């Protein structure tokens, strides 16, 4: 527990500091974090990061991760990032033939899905921070909602939880805890909106809170399902007492794309 608290304080302080600083330093930090998260996924699949498949996976993820402005500067091209990513998918499918299925269709699917999951998840975190004037407040708003949901679900579930939420995926989570997490998020999110009115109306703020809280929990379950499928307890050992990077960022990288795709931020 002591190690968990120390890691949480130090890691949280570093992350919050870099959110405040923003700019290229925050983007570089998130790129490193996303790379570690991708390596954790590769190891779950028992793929060596320093291998053809591992390097292709990392490059695919970086392609989706980096801001368009960085991409245009590093690789001036008439093609968009998504078009190049689609081309890479076609090349990967070609490899299944060239390698006579040594590189299988399942592995191609793993590379593609993992790249989208990690790459786009962290990409939208970077894009949110880059929003002029309000970016820092939007990032902190979503962070507070996710952290409050996790804490509320834990304490309410521990005291009153009886009905399992999804025992096949995460046996400790309860329906009571999930509802408690949403209620806690509504309280904290409402206070945040009153102090820092970043949304044009209270109704929109409540809607964003509900989406972030509900889908944040779903993002946590998605990562739990991944770990259960690959028979691992934690995604990694990067954060002593907390597991891996994916264990800490699973909700955030699931919620950010949804909020952007729904045009809520």
From TrEMBL:
GO terms for biological process: CDP-diacylglycerol biosynthetic process. Pfam families: CTP_transf_1 (PF01148). GO terms for molecular function: phosphatidate cytidylyltransferase activity. Pathway: Phospholipid metabolism; CDP-diacylglycerol biosynthesis; CDP-diacylglycerol from sn-glycerol 3-phosphate: step 3/3; Lipid metabolism. Its main location: membrane. The chain crosses the membrane at residues 12-38, 50-70, 82-98, 110-129, 135-156, 177-196, 202-222. It is a multi-pass membrane protein. GO terms for cellular component: plasma membrane. Keywords: Cell membrane, Lipid biosynthesis, Lipid metabolism, Membrane, Nucleotidyltransferase, Phospholipid biosynthesis, Phospholipid metabolism, Transferase, Transmembrane, Transmembrane helix. It comes from the Bacteria. The keyword Glycoprotein does not apply. The keyword Nucleotidyltransferase applies. It catalyses: a 1,2-diacyl-sn-glycero-3-phosphate + CTP + H(+) = a CDP-1,2-diacyl-sn-glycerol + diphosphate. It is found in: Cell membrane. InterPro entries: PC_trans (IPR000374). Its EC number is 2.7.7.41. Belongs to the CDS family. This is Phosphatidate cytidylyltransferase. It comes from Halalkalibacter suaedae. The lineage of its organism: Bacteria, Bacillati, Bacillota, Bacilli, Bacillales.
